[in-house]
Design a protein that fits this description.
three-stranded antiparallel β-sheet
Length: 174
């Protein structure tokens, strides 16, 4: 909800141009969370790939250049002289983003599943990890017990101890 946002969050997270674009959009809430998700996906990718440890969100410049209906946006994030492609999808009121490092065209598929977690759950993270493993096992047609998620800050999914090259983003907030 935009009315519940702390103004310091928006000022500390978005450049002036991004802020103007977000609040000029026909749906500022979707625009804001799409920009935030794009930045977060790039930060996670840079932590995994380059070992970056501290990235100021305002140093990342989001530019969406393609919208497909109200459910998908493609664009790029500029950071330290690099352009990182991002795809953002909106499913069931949630926003998910994937950053793609490397050369275009990317061989990719965005897979998003939204799983309801009981509000009183003491292990929301474990439930989110279990749902991801189940989703990947279904898509790969492999036994669930062959998959595991390792790592906390930059999680990755492995099958038999070998990384699958799947970008993992887990969210279990509210």
């Amino acid at each position: 909800r935009l009315d519940a946002l702390n103004d310091s969050f928006t000022k500390d997270t978005f450049t002036d141009d991004e802020y103007d674009a977000i609040f000029a959009d026909r749906d500022p809430g979707v625009a804001l969370w799409s920009h935030w998700a794009a930045k977060q996906s790039v930060i996670k990718a840079l932590v995994k790939a380059a070992g970056e440890t501290s990235i100021d969100p305002r140093a990342l410049r989001v530019d969406f250049y393609n919208r497909v209906g109200g459910t998908r946006m493609s664009g790029s994030v500029k950071y330290a002289g690099h352009r990182i492609d991002v795809d953002v999808v909106h499913i069931s009121g949630a926003v998910h983003a994937v950053a793609m490092l490397g050369t275009w065209p990317h061989r990719r598929a965005i897979v998003c599943d939204v799983v309801a977690v009981p509000g009183d759950s003491k292990d929301a993270g474990g439930l989110a990890r279990g749902a991801l493993c189940s989703s990947v096992a279904d898509r790969m047609d492999c036994p669930l017990d062959e998959l595991c998620i390792v790592g906390a800050d930059a999680p990755r999914i492995e099958r038999g101890g070998i990384g699958l090259g799947i970008d993992v983003s887990l969210s279990h907030h509210g």
